[in-house]
Amino acid sequence: MKLDIIGDIHGCYQELQTLLKELGYHWKNDKIHHPEERKLAFVGDLTDRGPHSLEVIRFVYQIVVEQKNGYYVPGNHCDKLYRFFLGNNVKQQHGLETTVAEYEQLSKQDQDKVKEMMMTLYEDAPLYHVIDDLNTVIAHAGIPEKYIGRHDKKVKTFVLYGDITGEKHDDGRPVRRDWAQDYHGDKWIVYGHTPVLEPRFVNQTINIDTGCVFGNKLTAFRLPEEEIVSVESTMPFVEEKFRY
């Protein structure tokens, strides 16, 4: 198997299409295709903050659900949007407000369609994907070796939010431990969640959230080649959003 794993998109549909072309994908009979029969995978956080969240949902739904030719794991923003669609009282902040504003511009019929797509994507997705052919695990915020094989509430919190301590920084962001420093497994752990200026390799882990929505770039990690392919963002650069 050959796989292209794409980092947090956050509604940056234009950059996603540019990256796919860079990776060698093209459209054929209304389906996306790669001459090497490569597959796509998405580390979650498809929506929020960026300008075209609903287009990203439609695209990923087509790949993962309709074509059954890709992998998707939910991120914390996906989880929040899902809870919004369930009718739960979630705060429209930290980017959700941009997705909701897009959604409210749609006709009732189109709202129902995109809502069904997102809920199906979320409900059908595992907390993390183990891809044995490539000795790889894809998890939105990462996963420690001891949690691989488990699917309980503790694991869900970790893969959505990372190794949170319960404390908060002055700006309201949760304090997170750098779990990758303690990872000593032989499987690749491919994740996102925390924006980094460059893909961050630590032990056998790689963070590919290169902060496209904050003006840096959108990144794919190719396996088995272990190659990085990135495209520049069209969004304004927000320096304070980057931890590394």
UniProtKB/TrEMBL annotation:
Domain Calcineurin-like phosphoesterase stretches: 1-196
Cofactor names: Ni(2+)
Reactions catalysed, as given in the entry: P(1),P(4)-bis(5'-guanosyl) tetraphosphate + H2O = GMP + GTP + 2 H(+)
Enzyme class: hydrolase
MF-aspect GO terms: bis(5'-nucleosyl)-tetraphosphatase (asymmetrical) activity; GTP binding; nickel cation binding; phosphatase activity
Keywords from the named record: GTP-binding, Hydrolase, Nickel, Nucleotide-binding
UniProt-listed Enzyme Commission number(s): 3.6.1.17
Cellular component terms (Gene Ontology): cytoplasm
Function: Asymmetrically hydrolyzes Ap4p to yield AMP and ATP.
Family: Belongs to the PrpE family.
Protein name, UniProt field: Bis(5'-nucleosyl)-tetraphosphatase PrpE [asymmetrical]
Species of provenance: Gracilibacillus salitolerans
Gene: prpE
